[in-house]
Design brief:
Layout: E1 2-5, H1 6-11, H2 13-22, E2 27-31, E3 34-39, H3 42-65, H4 73-79
Parallel strand pairs: 1-2
Antiparallel strand pairs: 2-3
Length: 83
């Protein structure tokens, strides 16, 4: 995986796209030293979407198995380590 500033990414967009499409190499785009975006191949994007759909389905099935009980925001945060 390579890293590029937003300014350099503008100058080298064609190269970054080619790396993603043909070398399957992701490029992290930074702005002010912070990661703000990633350029990946379309195939990787499709796999990500499939995994996300699969996870959503698994979560929905788990929720149905629980009897579809509603949870408070406090419980949701606690279950996901956000407190």
């Amino acid at each position: 995986m390579s890293v590029s500033t937003a300014q350099d990414a503008r100058k080298n967009l064609s190269e970054i796209i080619s790396k993603a499409a043909f070398a399957n190499e992701a490029t992290v785009i930074t702005r002010s030293g912070k990661n703000v975006a990633v350029v990946i191949s379309y195939n990787d994007y499709e796999r990500f979407c499939q995994l996300e759909d699969q996870l959503d389905g698994e979560l929905a099935m788990a929720r149905l198995a629980e009897g579809n009980k509603r949870k408070s925001w406090k419980d949701v945060k606690a279950d996901n380590g956000l407190e």
